[in-house]
Design brief:
The chain is about 50% helix and about 15% strand. It is of the alpha+beta class and about 600 residues long. A 5-stranded antiparallel beta sheet has the order 2-1-5-4-3, with helices on both faces. α8 (about 285-330) runs parallel beside α9, α8 runs antiparallel to α11 and α13 packs parallel to α14. The two termini are about 50 Å apart. Its main location: membrane.
């Protein structure tokens, strides 16, 4: 089923519009998504950097407290004392607890516990309460444990541990080595315990949105602190924590309990802690959802508007073509009707003007034929004149319909260059075909008419096809009858190549003078004719009659059939001239136009 031009135009516009909108929407959405993701990660990274800085300041306060302990002489003397001297141990314990530890508790109320352990196995400790703290741990074992994790350089180490290694897991211990009074070699360890929940005061102002949370890991990948009341990480496994730990100063996406989270971490240069913020990916991409919705709404409105414009534009093209097609149908029925131009100045307007000119001239010729029939008494002349005019009227619009279909296709997929080429060729053929003089035509004129036909045919069949013209230049101005060469070429294209044109196919036009005759040869290597069909065709030619327009389509396809070409030559030059046919099935056909030599 053939599709109408308006449907083709609409489908083409719809394809282009949908492709454009989808590509623009696709690129805009993913570009905006990527930029928003980067912006979100950058904002979160800034939040972490700020919180990390505040956390480092918080830890530096405890470092100052440890500096006070390291510089306290009685602490150094305690490390150098004889472990068997119980009185000295008692005295140092009392003085250090009373004058040093109590002062630090006042200055740093967040401290939970302070203790000093010497390598001799003695320890002094105190908690942030009104009474002295009794030792609840084995000093020597604790000293060995802390020594394994504390460098001798005196650098601070922060551990997620406490003296009991049980109970409150949110206890953080700051540990460092300490020298005695008489030696530069570390002879003890000072440790300050404080609650990690105090860090929450630094993080409380952070607005991480609904579902966002944070936690802190030490330099070994252990959790130091996790925000209380956060239920989003009930399924946070050791594997998840390890994956985050292996990407310091980076961001990764992990699926926790079936939900994707963005983890952004920053490592502190001071404490070697890794501070991690996690936010559900869905919350981060809420702006993307808004962009997507907006894009869809705007795209839908744009699609509706452009489709309406496409319908209007398509109708502006198809309407004059339909008018021209309807006019041709009326012409085919013998009803001559001029077309309304409506001021069109484009290629279609030129085609409509050529059609109106053809109709006008054909109408004038018919009127002149009728006048000649009424005024002349020479029946033979009247009969020939009527045959001349009748032949001129037998231009079948079917070829014009096919050409218009070609114009329709190029109106969709090509720019105006091809359309202009087709219309100009068609206009030339129309102007050439409606001229009434038959004899004063040169073979060069007919070849030019064939060239216009081939220009249009090139676009109809979608490929180039060159006709071999081997006529000697001296014969290009020889006389022949108008509209005899192009119908034969058209007949070859319609019947000689039923399976389509191939590279091996050719059409050759030649001419020569033999005796008193001027002969034009049109040869092809197409399908040829069967012997029965060739005999039948020769019988038709011998009748010397015009072809019936409703007769055998084999001899009339294309507007002016073989029979009419034969008869037109006879009416101009005499019945001893005309068209002859030679053909061999599956080898080709040779058409010979016989006319008198000048």
């Amino acid at each position: 089923m053939r599709k109408s031009l308006s449907n083709k135009l609409f489908a083409s516009f719809l394809t282009v519009i949908l492709l454009s909108l989808s590509m623009v929407g696709f690129i805009s959405y993913f570009q905006a998504s990527a930029e928003l993701d980067k912006s979100s990660e950058k904002s979160i990274a800034q939040v972490i950097r700020s919180a990390s800085y505040q956390t480092d300041l918080y830890l530096q306060n405890y470092e100052k407290a440890s500096d006070s302990i390291l510089s306290y002489n009685q602490v150094k003397e305690f490390l150098d004392m004889d472990p068997e001297n119980s009185y000295s141990y008692y005295q140092y314990t009392n003085d250090i607890q009373k004058y040093l530890f109590r002062s630090l508790f006042i200055l740093y109320p967040q401290i939970n516990l302070i203790y000093v352990i010497g390598e001799h196995g003695k320890a002094i400790s105190d908690d942030n309460s009104n009474q002295a703290h009794s030792l609840k741990f084995h000093p020597q074992e604790r000293y060995r444990f802390l020594s394994e994790h504390t460098p001798e350089s005196g650098r601070i180490t922060i551990l997620n541990t406490n003296v009991m290694n049980e109970g409150d897991k949110n206890i953080i211990t700051m540990v460092r080595r300490i020298r005695g009074l008489a030696s530069y070699r570390p002879k003890g360890i000072v440790a300050i315990e404080f609650k990690a929940e105090d860090l929450a005061r630094i993080w409380e102002p952070l607005d991480l949105g609904q579902g966002g949370s944070y936690f802190i890991m030490d330099e070994f990948g252990k959790l130091l602190y996790r925000a209380e009341g956060n239920k989003n990480y009930s399924e946070l496994s050791a594997e998840h924590i390890q994956n985050v730990f292996q990407h310091p100063n980076d961001s990764i996406v992990e699926k926790v309990d079936g939900k994707e989270y963005l983890f952004v971490s920053r490592k502190s240069d001071y404490s070697n802690w890794q501070l991690v913020v996690s936010i559900p990916v869905g919350e981060l991409r809420k702006p993307i959802s808004t962009i997507r919705t907006t894009t869809l709404v705007v795209g839908a409105l744009t699609l509706v508007g452009t489709l309406l414009l496409a319908i209007w534009f398509g109708r502006s093209i198809t309407k004059p073509i339909l008018i021209l097609k309807e006019g041709m149908r009326e012409t085919e029925k013998g009803r001559w009707r001029r077309l309304e131009m409506n001021g069109r100045q484009d290629e279609l307007g030129g085609l409509m003007r050529s059609y109106n000119l053809m109709v006008t001239r054909l109408s004038e010729m018919i009127e002149r034929v009728y006048e000649a029939e009424l005024t002349t008494q020479k029946e033979a002349l009247e009969r020939h004149q009527a045959e001349f005019q009748a032949l001129q009227l037998q231009i079948n619009p079917h070829y014009l319909y096919n050409t218009l279909e070609t114009i329709k296709c190029y109106a969709v997929v090509q720019d105006s260059d091809e359309i202009t080429e087709i219309v100009e060729a068609m206009a030339f053929m129309l102007r050439y075909s409606i001229q009434t003089n038959l004899e004063e035509i040169r073979i060069a004129n007919e070849l030019n008419h064939v060239l216009s036909y081939m220009t249009i045919l090139k676009h109809r069949i979608g490929r180039e096809f060159e006709i071999d013209v081997v006529i000697p230049p001296t014969l290009l101005l020889a006389k022949m009858v108008r509209l005899t060469l192009q119908p034969l070429i058209e007949n070859i294209f319609q019947h000689a190549f039923p399976e389509g044109i191939e590279d091996r196919h050719y059409i050759r036009i030649d001419a020569r003078i033999e005796g008193d005759r001027f002969l034009v040869f049109i040869e092809d290597n197409g399908a040829g004719m069967s012997h029965e069909r060739l005999v039948k065709l020769r019988e038709k030619l011998n009748l010397n009659q015009l072809a019936d327009t409703e007769g055998d389509s084999l001899y009339h396809t294309g507007g002016i059939g073989l029979m009419n070409v034969h008869r037109r030559i006879q009416m101009v030059f005499g019945e001893q001239y005309g068209l002859s046919v030679e053909s061999v099935e599956n080898e080709g056909t040779r058409l010979i136009l016989s006319m008198p030599a000048e």
